């Protein structure tokens, strides 16, 4: 009997551009006839806004609810911009924390915050973040192997805030929590956006699957969803490249995260070329001078157009995604 394929869903970071994967997944769920993307995947990886979506999906939150959260709360998430950036980040992260905590708790159906370990009943998770306290990369994981015992007690909303704490946009995230049945606090300190090293977490997912989970690369099917990229180019010759040039429009953050995503896509594509049994599908969008969306964009018309572009992308790629990743679970008509 042929071994069942191991399916991975990977979702990039990108701030409010999470509208794109949220809408694409909404369209997918509408075709499937259910609001449970997680049922079709063995492992979900998500960084930053992709991490928020991944955690939400693991709770059985329909993609349309995540999309609604972004579309209706962009002004709340990215409130009045602070221009005193010598002393403060651009935005306060407390409104985002409140929104995420409320929706996670609502769908947990218990009067308590869901924890990372709770997700394992539905799907395995990988959520990249970076620990400034340790000066090291950190991937928060469900306890899907016997040695994974550290992260399962972390409240999901804290994991979401940690992976999305983009430098300059938000403060590094710190909080404390109590394990169930314990009276002592565990400290979750100085975490920042996993996008500083894994804005596209696809390779992290492949490595986890082929090592700890002992899956053969040829048995893996990977669906990787980006948040759209504006190809960063600067053809003008400059004598100087001042600090303000890189700070303007937050170019430095966009450049780092965009280039990392491109590198991972190129690397995974090479793996696919050398192993045709390994299935790789990348869903992304390239912006241009006529339409571009910033990570902290609040323009409702832009967000509406971005959602429409995701819908049109689904019209092009949806059948392949359905046939490859969801066909065994599509209900009969």
> In total, how many beta strands?
10
Helix fraction, binned, reads 25-40%
Measured distance between first and last alpha carbons = 28 Å
Low-confidence stretches: 329-333
Order of helices and strands: EHEHHHEEHEEHHEEHHEEH
Taking all residues together, what is the mean pLDDT? 91
Q: Give the overall form.
A: globular
Largest sheet, in brief, is: 8 strands, mixed
Query: What would you call the structural class?
Result: alpha/beta
Measured on Cα atoms, how large is the radius of gyration? Answer: 19 Å
Provide the β-strand percentage band: 15-25%
Descriptive account of the structure:
The longest helix is centred in the C-terminal third of the chain and has 27 residues, at 300-326. The strands form 2 sheets. Strands 1, 2, 3, 4, 5, 6, 7 and 9 form an 8-stranded mixed beta sheet that branches. The chain starts with 5 loop residues before the first strand and ends in a 7-residue tail after the last helix. The protein is of the alpha/beta class and 333 residues long. It has 10 helices and 10 strands. It is 39% helix and 16% strand. The model is unreliable at 329-333 (pLDDT under 50).
């Amino acid at each position: 009997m042929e071994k069942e394929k191991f399916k991975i869903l990977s979702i990039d970071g990108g701030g409010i551009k999470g509208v794109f994967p949220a809408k694409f997944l909404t369209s997918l769920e509408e075709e499937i006839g259910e609001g449970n993307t997680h049922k079709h995947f063995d492992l979900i990886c998500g960084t930053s806004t992709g991490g928020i979506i991944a955690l939400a999906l693991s709770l059985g939150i329909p993609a349309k609810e995540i999309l609604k959260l972004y579309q209706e709360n962009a002004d709340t998430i990215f409130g009045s911009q602070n221009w005193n950036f010598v002393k403060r980040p651009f935005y306060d992260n407390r409104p985002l924390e409140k929104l995420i905590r409320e929706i996670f708790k609502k769908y947990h159906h218990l009067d308590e915050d869901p924890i990372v370990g709770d997700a394992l009943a539905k799907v395995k998770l990988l959520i990249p973040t970076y620990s400034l306290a340790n000066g090291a990369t950190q991937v928060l994981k469900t306890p899907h192997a016997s040695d994974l015992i550290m992260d399962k007690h972390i409240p999901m909303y804290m994991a979401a805030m940690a992976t999305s704490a983009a430098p300059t946009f938000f403060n590094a995230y710190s909080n404390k929590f109590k394990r169930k049945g314990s009276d002592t606090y565990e400290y979750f300190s100085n975490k920042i956006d996993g996008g500083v090293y894994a804005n596209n977490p696809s390779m992290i997912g492949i490595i986890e699957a082929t090592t700890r989970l002992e899956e053969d690369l040829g048995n893996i099917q990977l669906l990787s969803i980006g948040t759209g990229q504006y190809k960063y180019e600067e053809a003008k010759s400059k004598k100087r490249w001042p600090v303000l040039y890189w700070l303007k429009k937050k170019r430095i953050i966009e450049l780092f995260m965009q280039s990392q995503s491109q590198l991972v896509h190129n690397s995974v594509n090479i793996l696919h070329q050398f192993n045709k049994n390994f299935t790789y599908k990348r869903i992304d969008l390239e912006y241009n001078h006529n339409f571009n969306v910033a990570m902290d964009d609040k323009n409702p018309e832009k967000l509406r157009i971005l959602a429409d572009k995701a819908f049109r992308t689904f019209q092009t790629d949806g059948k392949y995604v359905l046939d490859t990743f969801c066909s065994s679970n599509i209900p009969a008509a």
